[in-house]
## 1
Amino acid sequence: MLRYFVRRVLLTVPVLLGVATLVFSLIHLVPGDPAQAMMGDGASPQDVAELRAKLGLDQPLLAQYVSFLRHAVTGDLGVSFRTGQPVTLMIVERIPATAELAVAAMLVAVMLAIPLGVVAAVWRGTAIDYGAMTFALAGVSIPNFWLGPLLAIVFAVELGWLPVSGRGTLAHLVLPAISLGLALAAILARMTRASLLDELNELYVRAARARGVSNAASITRHALGNSLVPLLTIIALQFGAVLTGAVITETIFAWPGIGRLLIQSIGFRDYPMVQGCILLIAVTYVSVNLITDLMYGFIDPRIRLE
Amino acid sequence: MTRSGAIIVAIVVVAALTAPWLLPWDAATQDLPNRLQGPTWQHWFGLDELGRDILARVLLGARVSLMVGSVVVGVSSILGMAIGGVSGYYGGWIDQSIGRVMDVLMAFPGMLLAIALVAVLGPSLVNVVLALAVIGWVGYARLVRGQVLRAREFEYVTAAKALGAGTARVLMRHVLPTALPPLLVQATLGMAGAILSEAALSFLGLGVQPPTPSWGTMINGGRVHLLDAPHLTIFPGLFLAIVVLGFNFLGDGLRDALDPHRK
């Protein structure tokens, strides 16, 4: 078990190094001089040279790379060009908001998806199944940047039930969480259906039925629990989509998270902040995948013995 | 489901291609006195904040979306097929090296890397296509690599090698064609993904720039007028959702049709 854990953690190190390298190279992909691009055409050559030195862009590339990695490992992602504050500090302040939104969206998704998937699997091939799966496919197809404003019109403006934007109370969380969670719900519903159908064909479920266990009990007590295990991986993989979706949802609902900070920073050409946000989101995603793999190894002995 | 998807896609493609001849209104013609006017018999989807016909702009936006989707899917699938084919066929250090690059690119969730690339390269249609292709090829490469790993062990491939066929011929004639059916499914679903991603980037102000109509830009522009003129947001979003649904239906149907295990 320990060997599996250590091996899986060590395999993540080169990926994280690759992610950091790609994020480092972003600023060097800026057409022309990044310092000039950040300060605009009106900036004096002295100011541009000063910023270049401050960002370390006057150093040889290898020295810049080593310095970036050394600082990143210690959590130092530089200073925001716009505010002058440490990038790490500004990002850390926004983490709770994004985490709150991501968790709420995933809860919405799970609460919608599992009943929908179960209903579709149990009544396979009927109108209920087709209806549920069409709804699921529609959920994947509806963009959250369209759904969000429409939900805001209906529930915030017309009905006045919920606030339009901002963060504070639970009511503020409802519309962004639904807007972000619907696409994930659609994907999970399809997976729940497929996974439950597989389990319903397993011998242990048939044996339970043969022993006189009712249809409902064979599903809820026997098949459903096992069918939810593969969903763990899908939820973890979709966590990345939730983080990316949060960039858009936070922009729509003025939610003060990392996604909104990223888009604002792009607007201000605050490249150190852009690099910091991208790095944090990617590292979070890699970490969630790692934790999922480790949990999977814990749940399923076949995986850690491979 | 396949038929519904094919019909939706066909209607949108035909409408987008024939839009300039179908509609009496040009997408750039302004009717300022009637700006923000709702749907009428004259202008079925109403007018936007500059008095331009929304239906004409939605159909012109369909051209942009379909073009971006086709180019991204085309470039990504060709790149993915070449890289995945080489990786799976040769194996060894080539496979390992390509695998590590793919691992790093897959470590960026969704279109985050595309957002980052467009942010540094600057917002434009070309950069959107470039950014989406950079992240898009990985999925195709992984799929093709898996198929090639399987196909290279087939007896007819061994026979072709024994008959003296070169590596390029074996790959092109015997190995890669086995990857075509799943590649077709992925490409169809990839069209939906690319169209959504382009619209999302344009919505964030990182994609197609005004005055060129794009569904994402139109939805973003309409947000200011959500209360007084919701049709500015509703119609481009509805079209986007329908087209993406069409490609998803088509992709799903093709997957069921081409995979004997799903029948």
## 2
Amino acid sequence: MEIIWQPKIALISFFLIFFAIYLFYLTGEKKYQKRTLQTVSYFSGQIPPKNIKLEGIFWGFFKDLEKLYRFLLKIQKENANDYIFFLVFGLIIFLLLLAF
Amino acid sequence: MIHFIVLIIAIPLLSAFLLPLIGRLNEKLMKFWAGLTLLLTGFLSIFLYKLILEKGTLAYTLGAKFPSLTAPQGFPVRIILIGDALSGFLALFFLFIAFLTFLFSLKILDGYHFLDKLYTLYLLLLVGVLGFLFTGDFFTLFVFYEINSIATTGLIAFFRNRECFKSAFHYLAVFAVGSLLLLFGVGLLYSEYGFLNMAVIGKNIQFSFLDKVALSFIASGLLLKAGIFPFYFWKPEAYNASPVPAVILSIVSSLSALYVLFRISFDVFGLNIVFGKILILFSVLSIFAGVFLALKENNLKRILAYLAISELGYVVLGVSSGFLMPNTKPGLKAIEGGLFHMVNDILDVGLLFLIAGIILYISRIRDTFEIRGLARKYPILAGFSLFGVLAISGMPPLNGFASKIMIYESVFHLSPVLTIIAILGSILVLAVLVKIFASIFLGAPNEENRDYQVVPKVVIAVVSILVILMFSIGLFPKQFVTSFVSLAAKALISQQNYINSVIY
């Protein structure tokens, strides 16, 4: 950690990066008009369709791991019987691997 | 001076029972009393930690002026409390967090009914946590486990709606079985050795078949309290139903259960390779199950509950890797990394829960994706939450990075695959948090945002203290590790020192 992490160098680097970002920010358009289309979120040149939401950001990930998710959500059903089942399941793993 | 160790448990315990009476007289006085109790206990923990650093491990025999008078067989046959550099440091730190959370709750929960009962349960849960840290015998451990579980059940039901009662009942049912498992394990040890004292059992342990069965039962009970795979199922439901201050103390309670597990693994049962491997397996599965489920979830408190499970996985991964590399430099570093991550876990997850509490307070909306564009109206809150997001994902220069890099580096010596898994888990944590940060704070604000309330200044001050602490630990991790964590890790692994502190 000592070699990778030097707080002083990190601090100086962060200040330099923030300064560079600030310089970049200063080059921005200052004459924009508030409460016009100029301040509305820009989505590929079109008005964003309402059915596209941020929660779909990892859609491909969920699609790819559909089977795993089906299993994970199936066992997480907020049922006291399931909770106790998994408690006993964990105990059995301990007993099988440790004691026997 | 030595009485500090018992006073740290006794003062909040007695104060908790006085709170409902004081609450009947005056609510402000009741809150003042609760705050005073926390402050006093916090100061006592500072003195205790100082005393431990001066004199080494302390053993306190309850009700005996001279412990030797109660020791016909060479050790005191009484309730014994043991304080060392690890338990002393954790008590100090947990009390600091409990006090900050209490200040936070004063504003966030202002106006709710039954606050006297909330603070009574809050102090009782704290008693359970402190009991876990200092207990030196198995039966007292079981008693504090029960106190812990009952207080948490009450806190889950605080909002008194259908969802909360259901969650509280589920919690009670599962922990009734969990405490039975713990009691059964303790009973097995008592039947074999005739003692309940941890140090005495540690000295005589044979690691026979019966001992292994006892360890399985005790570990299951403690891992249930900690909420590690496959015992984590109660967590999202319980955290979602509880008020945020109670959630923070529940996380502290989970960490204290892990402390007990590590303590008995090292100092009572001695290092066992198979046990260490099982814990590593559970920790890896916790990391993945936590983040995978958090990615799919839409409720803010549930997302954070899953992330809390994942972060606990890192703690267990670090310390249990130390089991498999005994008496080596990477082994010690892994243990230090795991213990360091305990501190960072409560800071990072705690900060995000506090911010979630603020968001719920100002918006009254639980679905993350219904809240948008808060950064325009609450830029400071957005900045703090960015700190939390970066810290929990292990990004420099924040505290999460400092402990995670120690875990990655040391676990690499055991198996590079584990390091890759741990890094992958952190990347997924960042993915989860980018999603919720972008959703809540970025983008165009909702029309309803106009009605959102102002964030109280006390609440911002509490969050600021946490952020400053996270930033300081992140910038100067070496100093923090040398001053606190290394001493704690050495206290954990020195079994002989622990045993000698009790046996004459």
